Amino acid sequence: MYRDLEDGTRADRNQSVPTGLERLRTRISKDHEHNHDEQRTAYELRDKNYRLNALETKMLSDIGKFRAIEKADLLRSIYKGQQEAFDRDLRHLHRQNLVRIVDPKGSVTKYIALTKPAKQLTEKHLRSDPRQEIYAGAVKLRELKHDAALYRLYQKAASEIEQRGGRPVRIVLDYELKRNINRELAKTKDLSRQKQQQGIRETAEQQHLKVVGSKIPIPDLRIEYETPEGEREMCDLEYVTEHYRDRSITEKRAAGFKLYGSEHRGRRPYGPDLVGGLISL
Prior knowledge:
The protein has 281 residues and is α+β, with helices and mostly antiparallel strands.
């Protein structure tokens, strides 16, 4: 379910008339917002201008790549725990109809997703790589958890790439890889078994993947990055949860994926401890 942000500015009907001190505080708050607005850049989309600062553009870009991200993860990774700045910018994005808070029933965790205008804005102005897929809207709770976990996995792997002097330039989610693979394999469904197997091998090669047995294992996340020498490389990542069987892990290793798992795998497959407790397997 989508919900509006609580911006703390909605007056209660029974509230008394503001005092002089309260009016002064309101004026200071508005002046503070105005100063920040002057630091924002205008981005045009369909005869409308959206004003964004650098952190807001980073937030839209990251959310669009992963479909949905936990609110707490955005605060930690982009705003470095600066709650006031984060709340201010999130309100500003919400007022421009660029983000939605996703508050699933029965879950205490809140997720942020892009609106359709935000997807279009990000595709037009905020992508550094035109091949980068951008997503809008939200899906089922389990998929929300999956997407949010992949963002934390990306933070860990991207940090390791940067420590080696590399620079991440594009991420590819499993949804995109599955779509591309299924589209190609659909062309071979009426062919002989031998031709179908040949199609599987060719499709895997096109997607820079391997055939294991008679299947093409698909990673949770692919990071394309630039090496210190300026070459393009990629790494395929898999987040191993408590539900994985030994056979699945063996298959993922054979496919050449880099496996990560939580130090507390047996306790919770997806959770905030993933950031500090994520280890290479």
